[in-house]
Write a structure and sequence with these properties.
Layout lengths: L2 E11 L1 H4 L6 H7 L12 E5 L8 E5 L7 H7 L3 E9 L15 E3 L2 E9 L2 H9 L15 H11 L6 H18 L6 E8 L4 E7 L8 E3 L2 H7 L4 H5 L5 E4 L10 E3 L4 E5 L5 E4 L6
Antiparallel strand pairs: 1-4, 1-10, 2-3, 2-4, 5-6, 6-7, 7-8, 8-12, 9-10, 9-11, 12-13
Length: 277
Amino acid sequence: MCRWLAYSGTPILLSSILYRPKHSLIDQSLHARLGVETTNGDGFGVGWYGSHTDTPAVVREIGPAWSNRNLREIAGHVRSPLFFAHIRASTGSSVQETNCHPFRHGRWMWMHNGAIADFDRIRRDLALAVDPELFPSVEGSTDSELMFYLALTFGLDQDPPGAVARMAGLVERVGWEHGVEFPLQMTVAVTDGQRLWAFRYSTRKASRSLFYSTRVETLRSLHPDKAFLREVSDETRLIVSEPLGDLPGAWNEVPEGRYGIVQPEGDVMHRFTPRAA
């Protein structure tokens, strides 16, 4: 599978999150604790929003993150209030740049950990459900990217939770029609540059790990000696496949079958249920 993180809050250098923590995403690329694979070396990507445009910048490469000089260079110079980072462990699709996350379409970014079971058997049926106007934008061969374009097809612009629910509902229905018992496994992050949605769901009800950070004001009271907590706003939030460190009280597991929204008017969490497409 893969490991990923999503950051929203005070503009910071990407390196502050990607490299500095004890169990950073770079460390996880070699020593993941909660993933299916310990090593995640089948490519990586970072995407971020700046102040001069509504669309995110995305950089993706096929080599491992732990030894990539370009990633370290970018991370030490790019500052952003919202960014995604992803390290990949392929579930069968090719190791190529177009299969690396995050995926981008217009102002939207998407990344995924998990898999559509028996994807090769049901891929054609799922691909035919993508809006014909969107289909030419599909570049790679992963289930993750196809899930993104199905969500776009089902109205991601108007109703992100509903679009993801309809995508999940279609994947399950088509999977069951082909005799796949547990078609879907996913933790997904998606953003339009203003809000961030994170989903944890699997047909088997045994989803991959996902965590969110405790509110900053609470962490300041617990750990007044941590300088980093004095530098970021109360609205700062991290969502991660696995915790970046062992700071007591810092991390909370997203419950099974839930999704959360990080947004200016306050974070919320709701139950996630696939819907008929």
